[in-house]
Design a protein that fits this description.
Mean pLDDT: 83
Oligomer: single chain
Radius of gyration: 42 Å
Number of strands: 24
Distance between the termini: 90 Å
Structural class: alpha/beta
Shape: extended
């Protein structure tokens, strides 16, 4: 063994105090290496080929192994193996006891966080190991250990055989002391005892006591088992007695006691109006219940199951209100705009009026947050006269949430669909499946796959929940789903739905919603009325433009509520005079303006062109800036651009180079560096719709001809200069309207989308459809050089 172990004392070894267990010579021990000191001691021992001194610690702080009372005696141990976990960090250390030892002076090892000491070997005292007394005591100890092993759990027969072959009193006593149940203090006493004969006497006494304890425990276990067996026997006999009574005709009917619990369930099942096959299955459950003890766990499970099945509206329907004028009035009263959704609901009611048995499609309302997807479903339920139930699907990852748990599991419950049907109390409610694009999947299954049957009109007339295990007709239910991103919905599920897009609200739509709905709602909720507080149109526009930047109107409603709260303070203090909330009051009530108008460059410099972009909170105006400098032909793209937008820039540059002569930008491109930048560099930007904007900016910068600052554009460009259609034209046109743009260039393929543009926007903006870049440049470039 090496003595050069890098410790302050020559011949010293790391000291590892343990609260439990006590290590004996010859014993293999797994030591937890979570403690940093234990880990450092083991790594040092392995690195320098030294041993460890494992000793017993009676007390002390759990976080500090060197605190408390540490015994001087212990066991010198050799590190057999270091078991490592994640990150190659030691988790367990396997050590083998070598011999007893006594530590001398213990010192701290700086830099390692451990303590070390020289250890003096403790030898057993010489005694009569071959005499009659020694042989008798060893035989008695082996017999008691064999008797103990039969009573104690976990002892293998080869362990008893190994003990029977042992001839050394010292090794025999240490082996048995390691494996029998003893307190740590008693084990430390045995470790400190140098006389093997005395250790054997102590072990014989301890084994006798443990054998008595284990014998008594076994007797108690047998008594408990006998009582349980007796209870099972009584239950079996009672069941046999019920069968005998049935055979003797003492239980009339099916066989139910008229005053019994099962008879009540029987009557409810027959009166429920459920299909015959379902009723027969529930009647069978009733027969099982009638033969059980009222207090048995199985009886409670059956009662819960029968109660749930009987609460389902098997034959209960609400009558649809098919008055189309009334439906239109309700939808227009509750929501401004949303014409596509309203028209689709009117079509549904008209089809139901003409053909009551028609199977309706599943509707999916897709759009950004806050545009009224959830609230419009409530209005739909009110318009058609049906009950409304909402199921939130966001974050659901377990298929059982949709289809329920099988009754074989403890705590099984029905799925959310059947629970919603029970809560509605009718078999034809309007069920909103909210946030269908937020479903997740993991090892518990795929909930979107479970929804395939629910949302398929050809299959859901026999939907079977795992808990009820009975087919239920869902074909009369009007399912409406909502999503923020239609493309996040699994393809198979999206194929079963008719997707209706809800776009971001325009400025005018937000204004009308606020004036006709939000202001009235907040005045009502805060106990105010129009005689106390009135909002001017200018104030509403100021709140929309200066304090909100969203697709919907949630933040706008919060701003209106904030104004109402301040007014309630005034009213509560006794001032009930009328307040007209004007544009000049906005900052005093809501604080400094949060959002300023887009600060666009109107100078008309060469290389600056206005583009239009779609975001989740509506349309945005952005400018593309291009600068050409002498260089080596590099293209620099900045402004937090995505991969698609970078590809559009490269395609635009290739197009310009391929037609440089025709575009009036001839020159040696290998000697020019081109830098394209889109301001607001902290905001990520991506998409192909900036293609024609980048191309026009390149032509303007390379030719020196300024671009018209009153013109904005959107469209994808190809290498041949064709202009391809884009999305989000409604939101982009509103951004141009807000920024005072007079002309917007759009792809010719988007002409049909102009029907969805707000009339106020079309009155102020001239839309120029184009098919190729040759149509774009004359509109935006003031003059050609």
């Amino acid at each position: 063994m090496s003595t050069d172990n890098n410790l302050p004392l020559a011949g010293a070894m790391p000291v590892v105090p343990l609260r439990s267990p006590v290590l004996f010579p010859g014993m293999i021990l797994h030591v937890d290496a979570e403690d940093a000191a234990v880990k450092a001691a083991a790594e040092h021992a392995v690195a320098h080929g030294s041993n460890l001194f494992i000793t017993y610690r009676r007390s002390g702080d759990k976080a500090d192994i060197y605190s408390g009372e540490i015994s001087k005696t212990g066991c010198v141990a050799q590190v057999q193996e270091v078991i490592k976990g994640a990150g190659d960090e030691p988790v367990h250390i396997v050590v083998r006891g070598l011999y007893r030892g006594e530590r001398l002076r213990m010192i701290s090892v700086s830099g390692l966080g451990i303590k070390a000491a020289r250890v003096r070997r403790i030898a057993d005292t010489a005694g009569d190991t071959d005499g009659v007394n020694a042989a008798a005591s060893m035989r008695l100890l082996k017999e008691k250990f064999a008797e103990y092993a039969k009573l104690a759990p976990g002892f293998a027969t080869d362990m008893v055989e190994e003990v029977s072959r042992e001839t050394s009193p010292s090794r025999l006593s240490d082996f048995i002391a390691s494996y029998i149940y003893l307190s740590d203090d008693k084990k430390e006493e045995l470790l400190n005892e140098r006389d093997p004969a005395k250790r054997i006497v102590t072990l014989v006494f301890e084994l006798r006591r443990e054998i008595a304890v284990l014998t008594t425990k076994r007797q108690l276990d047998e008594m408990v088992e006998n009582r349980i067996a007796k209870a099972d026997r009584e239950g079996f006999l009672r069941e046999q007695l019920n069968i005998i009574r049935e055979q003797l005709g003492e239980m009339p009917g099916d066989p139910f006691d008229e005053a019994g619990e099962a008879d009540g369930y029987h009557e409810k099942i027959l009166a429920s109006g459920m299909p015959k096959e379902n009723a027969e299955k529930l009647l069978k459950e009733c027969r099982h219940l009638s033969r059980m003890q009222p207090g048995s766990p199985d009886a409670a499970v059956i009662r819960s199951y029968l109660d749930h099945c009987l609460e389902l509206p098997w034959n209960t329907f609400t009558k649809d209100d098919l008055d189309l004028k009334h439906a239109r009035a309700v939808l227009d009263r509750d929501h401004y705009g949303l014409d596509d959704v309203k028209e689709r609901i009117i079509e549904f009611l008209a089809a139901r009026a003409v053909s009551p048995d028609i199977k309706g499609q599943i509707i999916c309302l897709a759009g950004p947050p806050g545009v009224g997807k959830t609230s419009v479903v409530k209005s739909i339920a009110s318009a058609v006269g049906r009950k409304y139930v909402r199921i939130s699907l966001g974050g659901i990852r377990d298929e059982a949430e949709i289809r329920g748990h099988r009754r074989t599991y403890v705590g099984a419950v029905p799925g959310r669909v059947m629970s919603a049907i029970k809560d509605a109390g009718t078999a034809n409610p309007v069920i909103l499946l909210d946030e269908v694009d937020k479903l997740t999947r993991d090892g518990h299954g795929d909930p979107s796959a479970a929804l395939l049957e629910v949302l398929d009109p050809e299959q859901n007339n026999t939907f079977t929940d795992h808990y009820t295990d009975l087919p239920f007709d869902l074909s009369r239910v009007l399912f409406i789903t909502t999503a923020n991103d239609r493309y996040a919905i699994p393809d198979a599920l999206r194929d079963r739905m008719e997707v209706i897009e809800l776009y971001s609200y325009t400025l005018e739509e937000k204004f009308h919603i606020a004036r006709e709905h939000l202001v009235k709602k907040q005045l009502r909720e805060h106990g105010l009325n129009g005689n106390i507080l009135r909002f001017t149109d200018g104030a509403i526009y100021a709140m929309i433009n200066g304090y909100t930047r969203e697709a919907g109107v949630r933040e706008l409603e919060r701003m209106i509520a904030k104004v109402c709260r301040k007014e309630t303070v005034r009213v509560a203090e006794g001032d009930k005079s009328r307040k007209t909330f004007k544009e000049s009051d906005v900052e005093a009530y809501l604080g400094p303006v949060k959002y300023r108008g887009d600060e666009l460059d109107r100078s008309g410099e060469a290389g600056i062109v206005n583009g239009l972009a779609w975001t989740s909170v509506g349309g945005e105006m952005l400018q593309v800036e291009t600068v050409v400098v002498d260089g080596t032909g590099k293209l620099e793209l900045t402004g937090s651009l995505g991969d698609v937008m970078k590809e559009s820039a490269r395609a635009a540059l290739t197009y310009v180079r391929s037609r440089s002569d025709a575009l009036g930008v001839s020159g040696d491109f290998s000697k020019k560096d081109i830098h394209i930048h889109v301001p607001e560099g902290a905001v990520p930007k991506d998409g192909p719709s900036a293609g024609i904007t980048i191309t026009a900016s390149l032509v303007s910068a390379l030719s020196g001809a300024p671009a018209d600052p009153s013109v904005a554009m959107t469209g994808e460009v190809t290498l041949r200069g064709r202009v391809l259609p884009i999305g989000g034209l409604k939101e982009k046109s509103m951004a141009a309207f807000k920024n005072g743009i007079s002309t917007v260039i759009i792809p010719k393929g988007n002409v049909s989308d102009l029907e969805k543009i707000d009339s106020a926007v079309k009155d102020r903006i001239r839309f120029v459809p184009v098919e190729k870049m040759d149509d774009v440049l004359p509109v935006v470039i003031k003059r050609r050089v």
